[in-house]
Specification:
By secondary structure, the protein is of the alpha+beta class. It contains 3 helices and 2 strands.
C-alpha cells in the first residue's frame, strides 16, 4: 500500500469528475514536538496565554493551513503527507513501528 502524490490523485479524480471528500495532512509522530512548538509560537504571537497543562495539538482548535504548513517546513523542516479521500472511501493509516 502506498500514498499517491496529491497531484496524481487530483488528476485521477478530475478525470472521473469526482471531488475529494476530505483532504488529510498526516505527520510523523516523531514530529509532534516540532508541531507543538510551532502552534505554541503562533498562539503567543496572536496574544494567547498558554496553560502549562494544555496541549494545542489535542484541543482541535487549530488547522494547519497552507501558510502554517509552509512555516512548519521552513522553520522546522517538517513536511506532512497529503492524502485526498474520495466520498465513500475509507482511509487506513498504518501505525508506525
Amino acid at each position: 500500500m502506498k500514498a499517491l502524490p496529491l497531484g496524481e490523485y487530483t488528476q485521477r479524480t478530475d478525470e472521473k469528475h469526482e471531488l475529494p471528500g476530505a483532504l488529510w495532512h498526516i505527520y510523523a509522530a516523531r514530529d509532534a514536538d516540532k508541531i507543538r512548538d510551532l502552534l505554541d509560537k503562533v498562539a503567543i504571537e496572536k496574544g494567547a496565554r498558554l496553560e502549562p497543562d494544555h496541549d494545542l495539538i489535542h484541543d482541535q482548535s487549530w488547522y494547519l493551513d497552507g501558510t502554517l504548513r509552509d512555516r512548519l517546513y521552513k522553520e522546522y523542516g517538517v513536511e506532512g503527507y497529503p492524502i485526498a479521500q474520495r466520498l465513500g472511501n475509507a482511509i487506513f493509516i498504518p501505525a508506525y513501528i
